[in-house]
Amino acid sequence: MTPLQKQGWAGLALLLLIPAWVLAASNTTFIEHPMIVVRELPPFLANPETWSNIGITLARVAAGLALGVVAGFVAAFVMTRSRFLGEVLGYYVTAALRTPSAIAAILALAIFKGSETGYALVVAFITFPYMAVGLRDGLANADRDLDEMSQVYHLGLLAQIRHVWAPYVAPFIFAALRNAHALAWKVIVVAEIFGAAKTGFGAKFEHAWSYMLMTEVHLWLLVFMVIVLFAEYGLIRQAEKFVFRWR
Amino acid sequence: MTQETRPSILKCEDLGVSYGAVPAVGRLDFDIRKGEFVAILGPSGCGKSSMLNVISGLRAPTRGRVHVKDQELFTPASKPPRLGYVFQSHRLLPWRTVRQNLEIALAASEVPRRDWEARIDEILSILHIAQFKDAWPMRLSGGQRQRVSIARALLVDPAYILMDEPLSTLDEVTARSLRQELTGICQRTDATVVFVTHSIREAVYLADRILILTRGPAEIFEDYTVPLERPRDYDDARISEVEADIVRRVQAPWGLSVEKEKAVA
Ligand SMILES: Nc1ncnc2c1ncn2[C@@H]1O[C@H](COP(=O)(O)OP(=O)(O)O)[C@@H](O)[C@H]1O
Ligand SMILES: [Mg+2]
Q1: Is B108 on the interface with A (CB under 8 A)?
Q2: Within a 13 Å sphere around the CA of B241, how many CA atoms are in the beta-carbon half?
Q3: In 3D, which of A205, A193, A198, A191 has the Cα closest to residue A118?
Q4: Which CATH class is domain A60-243?
Q5: In a domain? residue B92
């Protein structure tokens, strides 16, 4: 697909949303008409408080995701090192993978009393198993032929990591990263709501909802969607395209 | 200089390889000298790849010694040998361009960096792939990839080059032209080559000397000097004669059926 075609599909997706939204608005009590939301959008975006809250959630997601990625790498590395650790850790990772995020959120925030550490840990705990499993599968399927080639041509350890191993596991890392990233955003909002946070998306959303400020609920939702989509298509997919340009 | 007076590059003594209790290479003794093109000819499963694994320094033999130039391999003091290896499949890094693949091998060699560019350009043009210098391997044909793999093997100042049936996965037209170029380059660069094949004709066309192996576990059945001048023509009747001669010799030890081989010869 050319970039233009891609943009065409994106535009179409947006366009189709409008009649669906109008239809929903006229048939339910809670959904506002898009015109009202659009009218309120400029002052909402001009408000610095909007951006400071977005920034806070963004920082929590980034910190948690970074922590989760590092923990996932470490876990995958340890799991592929020894049979014993691979088997034993494998069960913990599977358990973490199946833990409902709401429960992880409640536990972490009870322990860390709604501190920033708590938020980062919730996101990290939910995302790290995805990284761990993805990376482990990548390393387990390692290419013995290229290994032999590196040995025959005397590639040093760094050269092997840089030119053979890292590119080899990159597709696994990206697949895992996409999953982890998508989850991170879902989890952080759950955590912010359960943690009775004063700031961030979740907090603002909850506040608007409990006071029945329906326009504001829509505005937060809209901004949230845009940011998540931007992170996915604007950052992750672009990085992926660059890394896999050899295909 | 005659071959006998040229220095020894690769020498195996009483070489044996077993997997557990199962022998794959029985006993091999040979000495390959500077500039020789030696074909290793043996039926499939006789232990050719096992032998290559040892003389490439990848795996220690179960028995015997390997010398590269003056140095014995697989001793605590020995360094791994400097060699080029053309595998059956290209084994290029698909995520690096042709040039990067060559540079990665050069970076691990002793070739000084200031010579890389000129050397890469030279070898790529000799192999008729200069226009693919910045291409991704996935965009190349099978023959072009194998040319890059040959370039890589030649570039690193190898003491010797191993080739494990490098043309066997190519179509016959591509294999023919590459076979012809290979003899030219190896003559010109005075490369020392160990070329494993199961094709008798290919061995006769390419090699100065053919080590004919027995059925596995491999031993040397005959150390055969190819009685043909260079340059050779792949379709020459004299190649067919030598081929037929070798077929006659290996019929019994390889357990070939006579009818089948008449058709080949
Ligand atoms: N890693 C291995 N473990 C056990 N047996 C092996 C291994 N590699 C090869 N063999 C056996 O050793 C014999 C020689 O194999 P190989 O060296 O690959 O022969 P060739 O390359 O001549 O076809 C075969 O019987 C093969 O099954
Ligand atoms: Mg083989």
Answers
A1: yes
A2: 7
A3: A191
A4: mainly alpha
A5: yes
List chain A domain ranges.
60-243
- Chain A residues with CB under 8 Å of B52 CB are none
Contact B58 A155 (CB under 8 A): no
Half-sphere exposure in the Cβ direction for A197 (13 Å, CA): 29
Residue B122 belongs to a domain? yes
Evaluate whether residue B256 is within a structural domain. no
pLDDT, one tens digit per residue, over B129-181 is 999 999 999 999 999 999 999 999 999 999 999 999 999 999 999 999 999 99
CA distances from B100 to A97, B41, B104, B140, B148 (A): 39, 34, 6, 15, 11
Examine residue B184 and state whether it is found in any structural domain, yes or no.
Answer: no
Residue A143 burial (C-beta neighbours within 10 Å; 0-12, 13-18, 19+): middle
Q: Which domain holds residue B115?
A: 86-158
Instruction: Determine the residue among B104, B163, B169 to mutate to test chain A binding: the one whose Cβ has the most chain A Cβ atoms within 10 Å.
Output: B104
Is any Cβ of chain B less than 8 angstroms from the Cβ of A74? Answer: no
| Number of domains chain B is built from | 1
Do A76 and A136 contact (CB within 8 A), yes or no? Answer: yes
Amino acid making up residue A30: F
- The ipTM value here is 0.92
